[in-house]
């Protein structure tokens, strides 16, 4: 089983959007029995809350489920469980590295999946309000990530 964790600040906008989008792409490819997806935040303001209204709205628009998703914090246990820990920006990567065990973990940064994009961090729509832009980036990046997982992990199994 390949396990993917997306990380953002509050775990209500970017990372749950990425979780829902990648899960949807995995289901479309009939790979749910081989890949799991989760998301977490580095800040504790929204623990236990459902995704932000803007995230829910854009996912609804695209017919993507976010059922049973609730914000949680990244924990030290995550470093042993997830093969892919993908941070939405550098600040969250820095915060993950401060968690015991995080300093040794191999992190990926989401925008590294989209090297042709000018942006190097996924903008936080909690502050920008631009959930459509984030959805477009997340959708494209998740497609690249899924192909990478299939090539690197599933085809070699």
Automatic annotation (TrEMBL):
GO MF term set: protein tyrosine phosphatase activity
Protein EC: 3.1.3.48
Gene3D superfamilies in the cross-refs: 3.40.50.2300
Catalytic activity: O-phospho-L-tyrosyl-[protein] + H2O = L-tyrosyl-[protein] + phosphate
UniProt KW Hydrolase keyword: yes
Domain of life according to the entry: Bacteria
Keywords: Hydrolase, Protein phosphatase
Active site (catalytic residues): 8, 14, 124
Annotated ranges, domain Phosphotyrosine protein phosphatase I: 2-148
SUPFAM superfamilies registered for this protein in UniProt: Phosphotyrosine protein phosphatases I
Similarity comment: Belongs to the low molecular weight phosphotyrosine protein phosphatase family.
Official protein name in the record: protein-tyrosine-phosphatase
Organism: Paenibacillus borealis
Lineage: Bacteria, Bacillati, Bacillota, Bacilli, Bacillales
């Amino acid at each position: 089983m390949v396990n993917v964790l997306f990380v953002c600040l509050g775990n209500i906008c970017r990372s749950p959007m990425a979780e829902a989008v990648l899960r949807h792409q995995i289901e479309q490819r009939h790979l749910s029995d081989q890949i799991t997806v989760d998301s977490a935040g580095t800040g504790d303001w929204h623990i236990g809350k459902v995704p932000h209204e803007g995230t829910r709205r854009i996912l609804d628009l695209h017919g993507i489920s976010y059922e049973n998703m609730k914000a949680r914090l990244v924990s030290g246990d995550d470093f042993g469980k997830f093969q892919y820990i993908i941070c939405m920006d550098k600040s969250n990567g820095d915060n993950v590295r401060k968690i015991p065990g995080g300093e040794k973990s191999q992190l990926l940064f989401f925008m590294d999946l989209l090297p042709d994009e000018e942006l190097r961090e996924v903008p936080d729509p909690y502050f920008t309000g631009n959930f459509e832009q984030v959805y477009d980036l997340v959708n494209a990046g998740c497609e690249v990530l899924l192909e990478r997982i299939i090539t690197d992990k599933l085809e070699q199994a």
